[in-house]
Amino acid sequence: MSILVFQHAAAENPGSFRDLFRDDGFATHTVEFDREQEIPNLEAFDFMLVMGGPQDVWQENEYPWLKREKAAIRKFVVEMRRPFLGICLGHQLLAEAVGGKVAPAKTPEIGVFANSKTELGRRDRVFGTLPDPYKVLQWHGAEVTALSEGSDLLASSAACRVQAFRYGDRAYGLQGHVEATRDTVPNWARIPEYENSSDPAYQKDAIDKLSRDVESNLAHINSVARSLYLNLIFPAIGGMFHLGSAR
Length: 247
Fold this sequence. Notes:
Blueprint: E1 2-7, H1 16-23, E2 27-32, E3 47-50, H2 65-79, E4 84-87, H3 89-97, E5 101-117, H4 119-123, E6 134-146, E7 151-156, E8 164-167, E9 171-174, H5 184-189, H6 192-195, H7 204-237
Parallel strand pairs: 1-2, 1-3, 3-4, 4-9
Antiparallel strand pairs: 5-6, 5-7, 7-8, 8-9
Helix pairs in contact: 2-3
């Protein structure tokens, strides 16, 4: 039983999920698209985890592999109907792969913010286990602007309506970073697209403050990740996955 991980930058890895995978002896296979690695045979994998990155879903000319990645996500989720979790860029890629829309965010979010669950989110058998509201690290300048048929909105924030959604009964997208660790912010700040940016949000004082904010909320963020792991990833890999919705 194994997990297929799609990454778009070495620093944007599964974070705290890696410890959970290791503790339970689950194997992972990582495809780093920024290093031009190839997608393996999807049939070999029980779960797909797609991480964030500095790219945007519409940048197919700059990053031609985005087309292949979207096709693989669609096949895994729609055709094979296997469990999936997408975070930040992965959340946006899921939305577009199944027919939704993504665009530049009206209000980019960088910080630790609270998300509130919808009624469907509170009743969802996976998502319903999270606190309401729950806090996550936000670091995004794009957002899902329209969900496809077959998708349900699970959570929103003050600045971003689609913070979390479910497609079908076993594919989940989260805009916020539940996988954050104490090293996440300083590591991401060194990604060239952010390190070389003139945006005040990426300057040293702002990054230092964000690191402190993540540290002070880390126990909560880690608990959110563990809840998702226990109710989505672990059952999926162990063959015990149940339907995601209590409608």
